[in-house]
Specification:
Layout lengths: L18 E6 L2 E11 L2 E9 L7
Keywords: Cell projection, Cilium, Flagellum
Protein name: Flagellar motor switch protein
């Protein structure tokens, strides 16, 4: 899905502090919280599918 490699910078559009929007194409499919553990970045999915849609 997303290949993240060391030294690469990604722009997180329309993001709030420590929260990312998960999209496929232009369709929002969820949201996740960003956290770092042991020097590695993770995204915990907190909303997925219909509950992640803006209505």
């Amino acid at each position: 899905l997303l290949n993240i490699s060391k030294g690469t910078t990604y722009r997180l559009e329309n993001s709030k502090k420590d929260i990312v929007t998960i999209k496929i194409g232009k369709e929002k499919i969820g949201e996740g919280n960003i956290f770092i553990r042991g020097g590695k970045m993770y995204v915990e999915i907190v909303k997925l599918g219909e509950e992640g849609e803006n209505k």
